[in-house]
Amino acid sequence: MTRSWVPGADESLFGLDNLPYGVFSRPGEPPRVGVRVGDHVLDLAPVLHDEVFAAPSLNPFLARGRTAWQGTRARLRTLLADGRVRDRAADGPTDEGSSGSAGNRAAVEPHLIPLDQVTMHLPVEVADYVDFYASLEHASNLGRIFRPDEEPLKPNWRHLPVGYHGRAGTVVVSGTPIRRPCGQRMPGPSFGPSARLDIEAELGFVVGAPTRLGDRAGAFEDHVFGVTLLNDWSARDIQAWEYVPLGPFLGKSFATSVSPWITPLEALHGARVAGREQDPAPMDYLRRDAPWGLDLTLRVELNGETISTPSYRDMYWTPDQMLAHMTVNGASLRTGDLFASGTISSEGAFGSLIEVTWNGAEPIKLADGTTRAFLEDGDTVTISAVAPGGIGLGEVTGRITPAT
Amino acid sequence: MTRSWVPGADESLFGLDNLPYGVFSRPGEPPRVGVRVGDHVLDLAPVLHDEVFAAPSLNPFLARGRTAWQGTRARLRTLLADGRVRDRAADGPTDEGSSGSAGNRAAVEPHLIPLDQVTMHLPVEVADYVDFYASLEHASNLGRIFRPDEEPLKPNWRHLPVGYHGRAGTVVVSGTPIRRPCGQRMPGPSFGPSARLDIEAELGFVVGAPTRLGDRAGAFEDHVFGVTLLNDWSARDIQAWEYVPLGPFLGKSFATSVSPWITPLEALHGARVAGREQDPAPMDYLRRDAPWGLDLTLRVELNGETISTPSYRDMYWTPDQMLAHMTVNGASLRTGDLFASGTISSEGAFGSLIEVTWNGAEPIKLADGTTRAFLEDGDTVTISAVAPGGIGLGEVTGRITPAT
């Protein structure tokens, strides 16, 4: 671990090996791009003398591509590194007054802002939003619940990463209140507020470098900038009625929450794993060229109580395969495209309430003595995740407000 | 009909009662907003002295809302009207030299550009793209073809306008070549170029005025600016394999073509009809408050031969119902949202080849002696539409290029 001079950074989940990007504002000032270090956000535009970071979203920076992402990250690590430690390690005398690191600190420190003094915004202007369905456990469980008389997995599931387009315009930043949606519900159909409001704990992958219409995407790391936490709120009673034959629509489109922080792929180097073995072997265009499974553990909290800790490690379809699939037909990528893993459920640890409570049949008992089959008004759900080496993905949280 | 001084306008489908908007450019100049009059495009920014029309998309103008749309249209009709005719009708002497209309013509005429001197661009920066499935004939036919052993209509179909999100980033302007997509196909699955490439003739509705997250949309005409022609290219063999349970994805996402012209709702006043009777009566939130069925006749041409002339008049779900449905869960609208009708098939006149050729079993015979079950490389499909009173919606065309 490279140590930082920023107070508290080394002991946090947001040390120099992480450095996630977000968009923040101070009261009365416009939103702009920052990087999280410990419990501070670094205001990048004045530190790096680059107007791309004065934009109200990460998109212009993401559009520059991988070489620029790498260069900026390397520069930030230099600026934030504790030079004294390195100097000592080099076995020479230290001279704070003249060393580059001390000069860095003097120049940078005025632009470190405590997180409690800023408002975080949606970090990316979302272009297209695609949601996959990549967990074998989740797809099997949902199949058993929604279609009890059939094989839980559809015949296509092991051949391709099943996915669909969601509503990009209702992707909101963590902390945005989630209004309970109304709609046509099962049983019935009847009209009214959803009585089966659920979560889906997911990872979201943010595309930086675009492709042209008709081309396929190249290497995963050349296009995908980083990873965020995502909660794909789901009204199960609306979804169950509407979803045949064209898929989920209003049961999902009312809101999708994301963490304010995008962790660069580079920060997750130590989390990379081979990905689950696949049977049958995937077609050539879906063959894994590099390990893009990620050893991340999520935590799902309901009103502050941990109700599940699913692992991303053993997801059946890895994100490089999702990217290859999404573009194999020549569909172009745009900067700001967001694609999500689908609910992350692992052996015995589920990323949705419909699985945790088995469609409501086995409600959760909470410490306050109440039970939950699905979400009630006033409930707060918070999803967080940690990678090996103490890399935090931050959290995505939301509180349910009553239907109107 | 109000007559225009623009040569040829009154005899065309683009007279003063139409005035569709688009985005054009001349060689070496940036794209900007224009209105079509006959075979000319009027360059709006210099004529109206308004920089909103110097933008490369209609979005900034659309965001101004209905009162602005109405005001601009009224002003354009005044500027383009043939004052001499009105003066004669008023039974008074004409005096071109001093009349307002002659002054209008002198000021406006330099900004009328023949269409063959401009390139047309995508008129709208598409925010979210939603595709519905609103034709009873089409949904029934597809059900019979894709699921021959079941009831053709799913139980939800008569209760709500079934729809799904498509890929906004691959909405392209008419004339863009359409590359044949590759993917996992049925039968099989096997990998390769789609062998069952199809069209879907549709209307697209363009949202101007947005809503806030959590709110429902108000009156249809307060949010929707206008109508365009849309071809939702579809690879049936990819779609048939992938679409369960989350709906169409790669079978549709490679390209969706739209006309360069957006006809304002105001221009379609004379086309409005009550809409098809619905049984069961729709729920309250889907009740029609005003007639938003549209008496439009489409023409589908394959390599110049007319193969179908479906009517929009009897579509089961009307676009006001689609808008109400899409936002009943609180999903917000953005300026530039595009929602489409789904394939327009009417009694005996179909908007897709899979229906025309009944899944390829009854190929079309073309005048050159060849037959078509689905599209071949080099084929060109052109969809046009006309409303009562000689209002043209222009055309959306595309030529198939080979897979790579």
Kindly, what is the distance between the CA atoms of the first and last residues of chain A, rounded to a whole number of angstroms?
Answer: 50 Å
Biggest sheet details of chain A: 8 strands, mixed
The second-level CATH architecture of the largest domain in chain A is Alpha-Beta Complex
CATH superfamily of the largest domain in chain A: Fumarylacetoacetase-like, C-terminal domain
Count of individual domains of chain A: 2
Q: What is the share of helical residues of chain A? A: 10-25%
Give the overall average pLDDT of chain A. 95
Write down the CATH topology of the largest domain in chain A: Fumarylacetoacetate hydrolase, domain 2
Give the radius of gyration of chain A: 22 Å
β-strand percent of chain A reads 25-35%
> How many strands appear in the DSSP assignment of chain A?
26
Biggest interface goes to: A-B, 59 and 60 residues
Low-confidence stretches of chain A: 86-98
